[in-house]
Design a protein that fits this description.
Length: about 350
């Protein structure tokens, strides 16, 4: 599919889509450092622009709109989240562009905290807005489903849950829409209980082979620089003792309010994670280089969609596009709304 990517950040979602066979025809983000990182790692360009200034008439023809709209106002990591947080309104820019361009498909991503915001009323409002896109302009609207995915099920060495809004235009025949929805979310490939699947990837699997930073061996690895941040174990996010043999915790962009990045403690308890270790936990390849200040790089990684989860999502969409899917029994426990 031809993809328009909004709120691209450093490109975790986009990289997974490209690797699964899709073509990004437009990418944009308001953050300059994220765009710099993106443009150093992709062949196509990420435009540094505020989505509010993005004009639909300037977008090329496309099939799928994707956007991990800013989640700071929705995240449970943000103790100050509020229904009235202005950052929560940015999903309306996705609604605007969808209304003006009416592609066949869209996929929006956010944090689990969005489900409880306003005692569940916020997510219902968002779904209703998505379903009614273009109806005032006599468009047919969208069939929208909401899913909760855990990246650990797709080989990401991290227990990171994300809410996915998947929309399909009602002009697509119902039988085809149901074909796609019956194959979503992607089938799990890893589990911590099902012996028929591979066990969850652990921190040891992800970063156990990396040499220590600030050594001759470590200096040869991109973004693998040791930090002077003090190690403090108090049980709070970013200051917990981690288990080598289990997946890591959710990598976050920053702490509550307007605090700096949360840099977890390495399992050896001697130091904090490096940029490269954090990137591996988000399943970025080692040749993906990050730019900007150290704080900015951690924030970019923490805000990204894990590449391997994005790949599995993209693969379902690609197989659907190629007519390779068959009706499949959906995973009911993962479907939140329909």
């Amino acid at each position: 599919m031809k993809v328009v990517a909004l709120f691209s950040g450093c490109g975790g979602l986009d990289l997974g889509l490209v690797k699964s066979g899709h073509t990004i025809v437009h990418a944009s983000d308001i953050d300059k450092d994220s765009c710099t990182t993106y443009n150093k790692n992709f062949k196509h360009k990420c435009h540094n622009i505020d989505v509010k200034l993005l004009q639909s008439k300037d977008l090329p023809k496309y099939d799928l709109l994707v956007g991990g709209f800013p989640c700071q106002g929705f995240s449970v990591a943000n103790l100050y989240r509020d229904v009235t947080d202005t950052r929560n309104e940015l999903y309306l820019e996705i609604v605007r562009i969808l209304t003006e361009t009416t592609p066949n498909y869209f996929l929006a991503e956010n944090v689990p905290g969005i489900l409880s915001l306003g005692e569940g009323e916020v997510v219902k409002m968002i779904v209703n807005d998505f379903k009614n896109i273009g109806k005032k302009q006599k468009y047919v609207g969208y069939d929208v489903r909401v899913f909760l995915l855990n990246s650990a099920y797709y080989g990401v060495p991290q227990v990171r849950k994300r809410v996915i809004f998947l929309g399909v235009s009602n002009k697509i025949p119902k039988s085809e829409r149901e074909m796609l929805f019956s194959n979503f979310p992607p089938k799990a490939k890893f589990d911590d209980k099902n012996l028929k699947l591979k066990p969850f990837k652990s921190l040891k699997d992800a970063i156990g082979d990396l040499p220590e930073p600030n050594t001759p061996e470590g200096s040869r690895i991109l973004n693998h620089i040791g930090l002077n941040h003090r190690v403090k174990l108090n049980g709070f996010i970013g200051n917990r003792k981690l288990n080598w043999m289990k997946p890591g915790p959710t990598i976050v962009g920053r702490g509550g309010g307007t605090g700096g990045p949360v840099i977890a403690v390495h399992p050896n308890l001697q130091r904090r994670f490096t940029i490269r270790e954090t990137a591996r936990i988000q399943s970025f390849p080692d040749n993906f280089e990050f730019f900007g200040s150290i704080s900015s790089q951690f924030r970019q990684i923490g805000n990204a969609v894990p590449v391997l989860m994005a790949y599995e999502i993209g693969k379902v969409l690609r197989d659907f596009e190629l007519g390779k899917l068959k009706i499949n029994k959906p995973i009911q426990t993962e479907i939140l709304f329909d």
